[in-house]
Amino acid sequence: MKENYCLQAALVCLSMLCHSQAFALERRSHLRPSFHGHHERGKEGQVLQRSKRGWVWNQFFVIEEYTGPDPVLVGRLHSDLDTGDGKIKYILSGEGAGTIFVIDDKSGNIHATKTLDREEKAQYTLMAQAVDRETNRPLEPASSFIVKVQDINDNPPEFLHEIYYANVPERSNVGTSVIQVTASDADDPTYGNSAKLVYSILEGQPYFSVEAQTGIIRTALPNMDREAKEEYHVVIQAKDMGGHMGGLSGTTKVMITLTDVNDNPPKFPQSVYQMSVSEAAVPGEEVGRMKAKDPDIGENGLVTYNIVDGDGMELFEITTDYETQEGVVKLKKPVDFETKRAYSLKVEAANVHFDPKFISNGPFKDTVTVKIAVEDVDEPPMFLAPSYIHEVQENAAPGTVVGRVHAKDPDAANSPIRYSIDRHTDLDRFFRINSEDGFIKTTKPLDREETPWLNISVIAAEIHNQHQEAKVPVAIRVLDVNDNAPKFAAPYEGFICESDQTKPLSNQPIVTISADDKDDTANGPRFIFSLPPEIIHNPNFTVRDNRDNTAGVYARRGGFSRQKQDLYLLPIVISDGGIPPMSSTNTLTIKVCGCDVNGVLLSCNAEAYILNAGLSTGALIAILACIIILLVIVVLFVTLRRQKKEPLIVFEEEDVRENIITYDDEGGGEEDTEAFDIATLQNPDGINGFIPRKDIKPEYQYMPRPGLRPAPNSVDVDDFISTRIQEADNDPTAPPYDSIQIYGYEGRGSVAGSLSSLESATTDSDLDYDYLQNWGPRFKKLADLYGSKDTFDDDS
């Protein structure tokens, strides 16, 4: 507080000094003519005199943040024309005139009425003018001047960020740059030392230092270890006035983190690891884990494991689990307790990445010994081969030996083995096996053409422990024997054109045939084609073997006629090349057909040939004319039916309720609910929507609610009628009047007579309706209509 008072007193003194300088800079104007050597001549030799400016303005200064009791005197304006009699009036205009700056219009003194802040506005431009007080006539031209706000140290330095974050590698050399912090001061840097900043460190020694002029933070200690301490809290101060006493200051925090380098090798926490593995374990199964500790992090802490020595290098392997940084020992090949009971491995752990700068710290790897014990288990039997392939001829007699499988117990006890066939692989039970020696035999003849390969599984189990078993696949190939005769490869059919006896024979075959044999190729081709011995000299056709498993059938003569014989059956013998060979007789059908002059086939049907000869062109035209006449009659009939007048209500088909259908069967009475379908009473048009009328045009369409429509198969007549009534009541398109449907099934002229009661008033009925008078007002209309019969008779 004492320093602030001293500073304020100094500022007041400085302000007074500036004011005295302002007064000293006043200039008085010389309004009367004066000659200073500057002349100009007129047109007639008249000398023109140039008048000198009355006042020359300099800039004024005022101290910012002045808090004295009186307004601050900024300066004084005075003109040489002012004789002190009060006739001259001083006027001030421009920035802040009248609000911040005021002028005494008599004396010309300018005062600042408000506290000024240089950081808010550094200078003000004003206009001054002297005028006649009575006439307001300018006595001198207006001139501008500047009032500058003089800076004081009233703003402390401020850093760009409240907290800085920086990283620097551990074990960095002394003087390594970490980060640069920057502060700013709002005071005037061109005036005094108010904005001259000096940086210093308040917290963070002796680890870090800061450059006083630049604000660069550097390391101050060598070999800082991240594993010992990772984060440092540093406080930096920026002080103005060049760091001298009385200056203002600001601080910021810097969080410095040491980043990791690979300066630590991996180390195993123990020298020997003990593990065990069962001899029943399969390759790939995990045996155990180990971990070398590396205090480094990230890629600097990555460790890889390798087996470098030991008698189990061929049976075990080690991989790296990069998530846990553990070495995983796995079984590479099966182990056998009876063969070897323990193994030893030498495992090395090494860093994946290393820094050459720290290679002097030693090798970045470590080794450990791993001892693995093999555990004995009761193992299942083992077959001498992983699979077996045997052969047997097809059609072999039951009991034929196919082959043998052999298994043994690998344990020291060497338990006896029992063999069996997995019946899931031999559903047809083609084979059986001797349970003691493993010989496989057939139980029925095999057909290679049906199943050329058979795959079964043989089970070997210990007699004393049935749960210990093993399976082996056995593939049995059925060898072929020549037991199938060749046949036509397709249902061949030949065609030959009928011709004259004099026409020469063609060298082209009627048909080319080939054969197919189900047996193997060794017992199949080559095929031999020939005619049976009894028709070797067939007068009509012959067979020529092409010696490429095909043959051609040729005609021996011409003059074939469909009227004499339209079909020939030619037997052909086909023999295969098996040992012994097999043959079969196949029948080839050859038809005699009609052809044109170019030999193109026209027809092979004898009836068609005769029909063509019997019908003339006129007969065919007559038949077509009859068909056309019948079509015209049908079209006319349909047209006449459509011209009939349609009813007012449009039906797609006749309503079934207006028909009487006679059935000759007897109904089942009231209990028979299956004999009649209520759906037949429904209007088929009404099911799909309302029935439109042709004589009226509804104002809007009515869509009946789906819920009011009865189910098609409903047999409840009461519900059906109620639903139909409700639909009619809610239908806005229906006419608001009763309509009379006229039926031709009853009434006058009908055999059934009239069924209506509308004409009962004119008949000679003996019924007495006087009792209707006693039924109340609801029946008054009926009583008047039927009870007044006698009155009508008397009047007549």
Automatic annotation (TrEMBL):
<keyword id="KW-0812">Transmembrane</keyword>
<dbReference type="GO" id="GO:0005509">
    <property type="term" value="F:calcium ion binding"/>
</dbReference>
<dbReference type="InterPro" id="IPR027397">
    <property type="entry name" value="Catenin-bd_sf"/>
</dbReference>
<keyword id="KW-0130">Cell adhesion</keyword>
<dbReference type="InterPro" id="IPR015919">
    <property type="entry name" value="Cadherin-like_sf"/>
</dbReference>
<comment type="function">
    <text>Cadherins are calcium-dependent cell adhesion proteins.</text>
</comment>
<keyword id="KW-1003">Cell membrane</keyword>
<keyword id="KW-0165">Cleavage on pair of basic residues</keyword>
<keyword id="KW-0479">Metal-binding</keyword>
<dbReference type="GO" id="GO:0000902">
    <property type="term" value="P:cell morphogenesis"/>
</dbReference>
<keyword id="KW-1133">Transmembrane helix</keyword>
<keyword id="KW-0106">Calcium</keyword>
<dbReference type="GO" id="GO:0045296">
    <property type="term" value="F:cadherin binding"/>
</dbReference>
<feature type="signal peptide">
    <location>
        <begin position="1"/>
        <end position="22"/>
    </location>
</feature>
<dbReference type="Pfam" id="PF01049">
    <property type="entry name" value="CADH_Y-type_LIR"/>
</dbReference>
<feature type="domain" description="Cadherin">
    <location>
        <begin position="269"/>
        <end position="383"/>
    </location>
</feature>
<dbReference type="Pfam" id="PF00028">
    <property type="entry name" value="Cadherin"/>
</dbReference>
<dbReference type="InterPro" id="IPR039808">
    <property type="entry name" value="Cadherin"/>
</dbReference>
<feature type="domain" description="Cadherin">
    <location>
        <begin position="160"/>
        <end position="268"/>
    </location>
</feature>
<dbReference type="GO" id="GO:0008013">
    <property type="term" value="F:beta-catenin binding"/>
</dbReference>
<dbReference type="GO" id="GO:0016342">
    <property type="term" value="C:catenin complex"/>
</dbReference>
<dbReference type="GO" id="GO:0007156">
    <property type="term" value="P:homophilic cell adhesion via plasma membrane adhesion molecules"/>
</dbReference>
<dbReference type="GO" id="GO:0005912">
    <property type="term" value="C:adherens junction"/>
</dbReference>
<dbReference type="GO" id="GO:0044331">
    <property type="term" value="P:cell-cell adhesion mediated by cadherin"/>
</dbReference>
<keyword id="KW-0325">Glycoprotein</keyword>
<feature type="domain" description="Cadherin">
    <location>
        <begin position="488"/>
        <end position="609"/>
    </location>
</feature>
<feature type="transmembrane region" description="Helical">
    <location>
        <begin position="619"/>
        <end position="640"/>
    </location>
</feature>
<dbReference type="InterPro" id="IPR000233">
    <property type="entry name" value="Cadherin_Y-type_LIR"/>
</dbReference>
<protein>
    <submittedName>
        <fullName>Cadherin-11</fullName>
    </submittedName>
</protein>
<keyword id="KW-0732">Signal</keyword>
<dbReference type="GO" id="GO:0007043">
    <property type="term" value="P:cell-cell junction assembly"/>
</dbReference>
<keyword id="KW-0677">Repeat</keyword>
<dbReference type="GO" id="GO:0034332">
    <property type="term" value="P:adherens junction organization"/>
</dbReference>
<dbReference type="GO" id="GO:0016477">
    <property type="term" value="P:cell migration"/>
</dbReference>
<dbReference type="InterPro" id="IPR020894">
    <property type="entry name" value="Cadherin_CS"/>
</dbReference>
<keyword id="KW-0472">Membrane</keyword>
<feature type="domain" description="Cadherin">
    <location>
        <begin position="384"/>
        <end position="488"/>
    </location>
</feature>
<dbReference type="InterPro" id="IPR002126">
    <property type="entry name" value="Cadherin-like_dom"/>
</dbReference>
<feature type="domain" description="Cadherin">
    <location>
        <begin position="79"/>
        <end position="159"/>
    </location>
</feature>
<dbReference type="GO" id="GO:0016339">
    <property type="term" value="P:calcium-dependent cell-cell adhesion via plasma membrane cell adhesion molecules"/>
</dbReference>
